[in-house]
Write a structure and sequence with these properties.
InterPro entries: Glycosyl_Trfase_fam3, Glycosyl_Trfase_fam3_N_dom, Glycosyl_Trfase_fam3_N_dom_sf, Nuc_phospho_transferase, Thymidine/pyrmidine_PPase. This is Thymidine phosphorylase. It comes from Desmophyllum pertusum. By secondary structure, the protein is mostly helical. It is built from five helices and no strands. Helix 1 packs parallel to helix 3 and helix 2 runs parallel beside helix 4. The longest helix has 14 residues. The two termini are 37 Å apart. The mean pLDDT is 88.
Length: 122
């Protein structure tokens, strides 16, 4: 990983209310995904972002960096137009997925049931 930026410097910059550049945000996300940032550094950055907020450009940069940080599922070409996802935003007691996924599957729609355990209460 490049040493172009130091994680503590990025945390301090955000803590001080300054705007992070797209390159700085990309560097931070790469550090997180490659285990180059400690849990305490990640927590400190999240706290700085929470307290000082991000402007629209920072938010877009973070979203893009997170989007491109992982791997993507590749569906067969013949499935184009027939893959759907039903995603819950975490409403307590949301049981729609349990009935909806099989109903869509019967109609020929591919519904990968990818769930997020981070919601905890669903």
């Amino acid at each position: 990983m490049s040493c172009e930026y130091r994680i503590p410097d990025l945390i301090a910059k955000k803590r001080d209310g300054k705007v992070l550049s797209e390159k700085e945000i990309n560097h931070f996300v790469k550090a997180v995904t490659s285990n180059g940032a400690s849990e305490s550094q990640i927590g400190a950055m999240l706290m700085a972002i929470f307290l000082k907020e991000m402007n629209d450009d920072e938010t877009v940069s973070l979203t893009k960096a997170m989007l491109s940080s992982g791997s993507s599922l590749q569906w067969p070409e013949e499935w184009r137009g027939s893959v759907a996802d039903k995603h819950s935003t975490g409403g307590v007691g949301d049981k729609v997925s349990l009935a909806l996924a099989p109903a869509l599957a019967v109609c020929g729609v591919k519904v990968p049931m990818i769930s997020g355990r981070g919601l905890g209460h669903t």
